[in-house]
Amino acid sequence: MDIRTVGVIGAGQMGNGIAHVFAQAGYDVLLTDISQQALDDAVALIDKNIERQVSRGKTTAEDKAAAMARIRTTLKLADLGPTDLVIEAATERETVKNAIFEDLQPHLAPHTILTSNTSSISITRLAARTDRPEKFMGFHFMNPVPVMQLVELIRGIATDEQTYKTMLKVVESLGKTAASAEDFPAFIVNRVLIPMINEAVYALYEGVGNVRSIDQSLKLGANHPMGPLELADFIGLDTCLAIMNVLHDGLADTKYRPCPLLTKYVEAGWLGRKTKRGFYDYRGPEPVPTR
Ligand SMILES: CC(=O)CC(=O)SCCNC(=O)CCNC(=O)[C@H](O)C(C)(C)COP(=O)(O)OP(=O)(O)OC[C@H]1O[C@@H](n2cnc3c(N)ncnc32)[C@H](O)[C@@H]1OP(=O)(O)O
Ligand SMILES: NC(=O)C1=CN([C@@H]2O[C@H](COP(=O)(O)OP(=O)(O)OC[C@H]3O[C@@H](n4cnc5c(N)ncnc54)[C@H](OP(=O)(O)O)[C@@H]3O)[C@@H](O)[C@H]2O)C=CC1
C-alpha cells in the first residue's frame, strides 16, 4: 500500500519528532493534540530543530520550508480519519490510548493503518479493541526521533503480512532501521533499558551513589552517552514508571518492581526535563542534581 498522508496523535516530545521526520521524508503530516498550546509548541520546536540542521549543513533552507509546509495541525481527532497511516503518540496510559482509538474509529477510512508508538503496552490488546486488528501495529520510535536510527516494529497476534511489509517500507523511507520485536511487555529496547534505569534509581535510593556519581559512572565507566538518571529525566519519569509497571504486571516477576523513589518523584510531579525538575533541576542555567 502507498502511504502519503500521516496522522500523528499527541504533540509531546515523541509526536513532534515523528512529525518532523515524516515531513522531511516527503509525507503530508496532520498533527493533533488535546491542547492548542501543545500544537503551537510542537511546531515551534520542529522549526527550531530543522533550523539547527540547516545551520549544520544537514539540510537546506528550501527543504526546511518544504517540510514545514507539509505539517498541519488540528484539535479535531476526526480530521485524521482519511489519512493513510495513523501514529498514536499520546501519554503512556492504556485507557488514554483505548479512548483515542475508540473516538477515531467512526471517522477512519477503511484502508488506514493504525499504529501506536507505545513504549510497553500490549499491541495485541490495543488492537483487539479496534475494528482492524489485522491493520494494527506497534511503531516504536526512539527519543530524540530525528537522531535515533532504530524503530521497533511490533506485530500483534492478528497483524497481517501486508501491513507489516508496508510498515517496513515506511521505516526504510525515513532512512531508519527497523528491528522486529515480538509483542511482549516493553518489547526489546525497553525490556533491557528501563530496568537498567530503575536499578540506577535503586542505587540512588539505597545510597550507593548520588545523582552525579551514578551518572558519571555509567558515562565514563560504560561509555553511555547519557547517565541513566539523566536519561530517565530525558525520557520522562512518568513514562519510565509506566513502563516498569507494565513489565511488573505483564511478566508477574518481582525483579521488575518499580523503585519507590521513582514513584515518589512522579507523585511530586517531578517528571524530568518536561516539567523542569526530576533527578536534576533544570530551572537554572545548568542542571543541578536534586539528590
Ligand atoms: C523510552 C522509550 O520508549 C525508548 C527510548 O527512546 S529510550 C531513549 C533512547 N535514547 C537514548 O538513549 C539517547 C541517549 N543520548 C544520546 O544518544 C545523546 O546524548 C544525544 C543524541 C541525545 C545527544 O548527543 P550529544 O552528542 O550529547 O549532543 P549534540 O552534539 O548536541 O547532538 C547530537 C545531534 O543530535 C541532535 N539533537 C540533540 N538533541 C535533539 C533533540 N531533542 N531533537 C532533535 N535533535 C537533537 C543535535 O542537533 C545533533 O545533530 P547533528 O549531529 O546533526 O549536528
Ligand atoms: N519519552 C520517550 O523517550 C519515549 C516515549 N515513547 C512513547 O510515546 C508516547 C508519548 O510519549 P512522550 O511524547 O514522551 O509524552 P509527552 O508527555 O511528552 O506527550 C504526550 C502528549 O500527548 C498528549 N495527549 C494526552 N492525551 C491525549 C489525547 N487524548 N489526545 C491527543 N493527545 C493527548 C499530551 O497532552 P497533555 O500534556 O495536555 O496531557 C501530550 O502533549 C508514549 O506512549 C510513550 O511511552 C516512545 C518512545 C520514547
The count of strands amounts to 10
Helix content: 40-55%
Note the main sheet.
8 strands, mixed
Number of helical elements: 11
Distance between the termini: 52 Å
Walk me through what this model shows.
This protein has 291 residues and is α/β, with parallel strands linked by helices. The protein has 2 domains: 178 residues, Rossmann fold (3-Layer(aba) Sandwich), CATH 3.40.50.720; 99 residues, N-(1-d-carboxylethyl)-l-norvaline Dehydrogenase, domain 2 (Orthogonal Bundle), CATH 1.10.1040. It is built from 11 helices and 10 strands. The chain has an 8-stranded mixed β-sheet with strand order 3-2-1-4-5-6-7-8. It has a two-stranded antiparallel sheet with strand order 9-10. Strand 4, helix 4 and strand 5 form a beta-alpha-beta unit. The longest helix has 20 residues. The relative contact order is 0.10. Acetoacetyl-coenzyme A (CAA) binds next to helix 2, helix 7 and helix 9.
